[in-house]
Write a structure and sequence with these properties.
The complex is a heterotetramer of chains A (118), B (138), C (493) and D (486). By secondary structure, chain A is mainly alpha-helical. Chain B has 138 residues and is an all-alpha fold. Chain B contains five helices and no strands. In chain B, helix 2 packs parallel to helix 5 and helix 4 packs antiparallel against helix 5. The longest helix of chain B is centred in the C-terminal third of the chain and has 32 residues. Chain C is mostly helical and 493 residues long. Chain C has two domains: 263 residues, no CATH class; 216 residues, no CATH class. A two-stranded antiparallel sheet of chain C has the order 1-2. The longest helix of chain C is centred in the last third of the chain and has 32 residues. The two termini of chain C are 34 Å apart. In chain D, a hairpin with a 2-residue loop joins strand 1 and strand 2. The two termini of chain D are 28 Å apart. In chain D, 61% of the residues are buried. Classes of the chains: A mainly alpha (118), B mainly alpha (138), C mainly alpha (493), D mainly alpha (486). Chains in contact: A-B, A-C, B-C, C-D. The interface between C and D is medium-sized, with 31 and 28 residues.
Amino acid sequence: MNQFGALSYAITVFLMVAGLYIVIARNNLIKTLVGLSIFQTAVYLLYIAPAKLPGGTAPVISAEFDAYSSPLPHVLILTAIVVGVATMALGLAIVVRIYEAYGTIEEDEILNRDREAR
Amino acid sequence: MSDDLILRVVTKILIPFIVLFALYVQFHGEYGPGGGFQAGVVAAAAFVLYGLVNGLDALRRVAPESVVETMVGAGVLLYIAVGLAGIVLGGHYLDYSVLGGAPVDGQHRGIFWVELGVGITVSGVMLKVFYLFAGRRA
Amino acid sequence: MTLSAHFPVLQVVVPLVSAPLAVLARRATAAYAIVMFASWIAFGLAIALTMQVRSEGVVSYPIGNWPPPWGIEYRIDALSSFVLLLVSAVAAVVLPYCRRSIEHEVPREQHYLFYSMFALCLAGLLGIAATGDAFNAFVFIEISALASYVLIALGRDRKALVASYQYLILGTIGATFFVIGIGMLYLMTGTLNLADMSERLAATSDLRPVLTAAAFITVGMSLKLALFPLHQWLPNAYTYAPSAVSAFIAATGTKVSIYVLMRFYFSVFGAGLVFELAVGEVLLVLSLAAMFIASAIAVVQSDFKKLLAYSSVAQVGYITLGLSLESVSGLTASIVHLVNHGMTKAGLFMLVGGAVLVTGGSGMDRLAGLRRTMPLTSFGIVLGGLGLIGIPGTAGFISKWQLVLAAMERQEWWLVFAIVASSLLAVAYVWRFVEVAYFREPSNPADRRREAPATMLVPAVMVIAASIYFGLDSSLTLGGAATAADFLLGTSR
Amino acid sequence: MSTDSIAVCLMLPLAAAGGIALANNRPNLREAVSLVASAALVLALLGLEPAVLAGNRPTLDLIEVMPGLVIAFEVEPLGLLFALVAAFLWFASAVYSIGYMRGNGEAHQTRFYLCFALALAATVAIAFSANAFTLLLFYEALTFVTYPLVTHHGDAEARNGGRTYLAFLLGTSVLFLLPAVIFTWHAAGTTDFRAGGILPEGMAPAAAAVLLAMYVFGIGKAALMPFHRWLPAAMVAPTPVSALLHAVAVVKAGVFSIVKIVVYLFGLDLLGGVSTHWLTATAGFTVIAASVVALGADNLKRRLAYSTVSQLAYVVLASALLTPLSIVGAALHIVSHAFGKITLFFAAGSIYTATGKTNVSQLDGIGLRMPWTMGAFAIGALSMIGLPPAAGFVSKWYMLSGAMSQAHWAAVMVIVASTLLNAAYLLPIVYRAFFRGVDADSKPHGEAPLPIVLALVITAAATLMIFFMPGVPLALAHALAFGACE
């Protein structure tokens, strides 16, 4: 494995762990979503980085080139990004509604208010 | 919303170019980098910009919410219709090659309509999201 | 080509196309008609596909005429047709129920969006079962998940929002884990077609990334199928969602995730490899924990919907337990319980939805004396509850019988007793309802007898009746499950 | 032809249930339905008797639930005997219920008669079940249809009684009976009841003993200690329920199932090689211990309940002896105890209806005011003790002969000792009733309503009849025991 590959994996793992940590450790609903987004970004990198062939070009067939990078991961990740955007939009929309309903976006506060309401 | 003259003038100048660029990305998507996803977002950006500068009500006049919502559904329908056309014309679902005389023609035609559908839906969704968030009183 | 050759793709496209149509229709009644029509067609298609699979074996459909493994392939076999049938049948029966049910729970101007999301969720779930492509499966998982987050957030209580948010976070983590696993498999094999992937994996000697991928997929899907202790999202989501949504998602959502897990275990990795990873032991322990702990938690709930939700976690434990036994009979038990429990729980949630509509809540206090006010509903809930316990004559009994038989085959006597003992906990939580509904007086003695509207009661009663029917004649369910299990283990290494 | 008659026997109680539901608001019609259906059921069953004695085994296959597992019915001597008893006593208690339910102004009478009919349907289905799977199915069904009867009063006491009832019956059947049936299926590939047993010959004796234990304790309805506590708990029910269900249908379904399983699943030959001392010991202990508890119980129904526990254990004890003679005794005891005990319960209910008294200590001199009731009670008591001229004598005779033929002296001792205990807890009641003076301050009262007395007389007379003319039951019991051992 070349250095580039190792580096990309290292970054992938870093982002993955960092994102997941944020999701778990943060109480703020928005920050959790940020963590989730970082976590998802790691996946994009996981797919995209290995598709890059050293010296490869975009896969437009031409006599000048003989090495092409794989286009498939890009397509997949384009889809994944769309899914990610949709998730984020929905997540934020729900957070807005939660804020309207509870007046806070701190998870423990929300739980407290539910408990008080009971 | 904003009475700043510079902003108004700059947006007025920018918007046509943004839309034009969106159309370029949309229809050149077959030959180079681009396509419906990107074009849809770019086009929506033009409207969002208009809305930010001139206010939501002005934007609602330009792009009524009902139209936007129709776009969301219509784009997907267009996509699926192309797919079903493949079946109707004797091929498989989303089989473009049966859409035209020669397979290559059909593939051009198919991807054109599919990407158009994607573009319409994406810009519709983007605008809808904008409306939903911007329309709320904090 | 005849139209019937296109059934695999139409199965997904028909509900899918009804979603934008419902948006365009804008009027609640029109949207309702469109989506219901589509779901009934989908049910018809599922029946046709099941027959096709039975007579011809695996049905494959190349999208866009790109032959597999290059293009996306839809692949219907014994197992997927079974799941298609379950999902589409539940949708077809829940939709008529929706109309009156959501009138009380969702603002009228949002109804068309509700139906659109319902159609999208249905299309996603059907797509998961129909596709033979790993990434496509991920996309469908997300489609159905996003739609279900929206549907859950529509619940009346503000807690529905929090429940939906939690589900969104955990569901997305689950799906992302899943897609990481797929990414690794893709890097190893260079293909996304499941059948092709399986062949190429067989030729792979470097097992480490493959095992890592298996671990990621297992964890990701376990989150989605609410395997104990990854079930935290489920109870609130089921409790605060609109009744129709609870019924639909409880019957299908987790079940389809289990399908994905089975698909990857047996059609991609192969049983040998997966169980080398001690997946069986882990699943066994967690399933038992689910069966006992979740049931015990269910017993002390004060909200009946939440009680049912915890019972779902426990019942998922039975399904994964069958999976962990790594035998044909264990897998048969799993698959048949998939259907039996889906059916029973759907009926229960539908009946409770009717009670919520009439009494105004699903708290145990609200349900007090339900026998007086809603005799049919409460009797239906009791019958459904007997199904959860696994009393002979109900569908749940068939599953339990198979599961115990599978445990006996492995000579694991303690497991036999664990299974039957855990069903006693089910007696405890079902009997909480019985005592509340039959021994307590209605909180408002002036309440007159008033059942839920017929459009809600009839579908619910039909589902409960079906769960009794399949307890007495299991040739369809058990027969289908046995075929699917044979097929899965026969084709895997 | 005979297939049809099985269907008729099964459908009659069900049809009665339907008719009762339809006749919801017309009490006379409702009760007429019960009476007619029960009488018709007795006749239908009697019609089957000659064919069965001639060696025919009419069968009826209903539904194939799982491959190889069919809900099927087959009439064999023991089942017919049991069904006959249940049907006859259904008739008697239908008569009795009319007096009792009206006399005490009970609520929800339609539900009561409905569940009663359903319970009978389940009982007949148990009696006719052709395999252990069918037996299990209707065994559980019986538990559930009798639950509303046990908790009829709907108050906290009824609810608690119902909890105990379900916990024991469902607990044992789910924990032990279900795995036992599945294991039988697993080991033998079938659960059919066949003469001589179906378990494979090579089965390890230890495994067979464990399986037998699972069956015996899994059938909680047989109330073998330590799973007997549901029976006294179920006494919160109205007396006709206690009478029919907890003296006849439910508990007898339990011991009937045990006898059937011993004879037709294991086979006496197979069990001959298996240690059953633990079973005879448990049964013997139950016989004695329950009698001792009964001795100390002041509440009449409670005393009778523990007496039932003790008497049921006789049946288990007799079948554990594994000789044809004791099997005959077991089958006969199902019959004789049913008639005797229902008479006693009817009398208890009669006293309650006429006077509101529930305790033994309140019964001084009551025999003079209620001669019919207490006379019948005395006959029932004789039968329990096993004295001639009551039915209990016949069954005890066979059981003792069985025990002696095996030279099983411990069992003989148990039977003799318990006979003394039976006398000790039943005869004082009779003595009090007839030979003690009436409390001066008690309100004057007469006999119970006519239907109650009528029912009492019928069952008491039947108890005597069986002693003098034991033809039908004896023939059927012989057909069972000796047919199974050929």
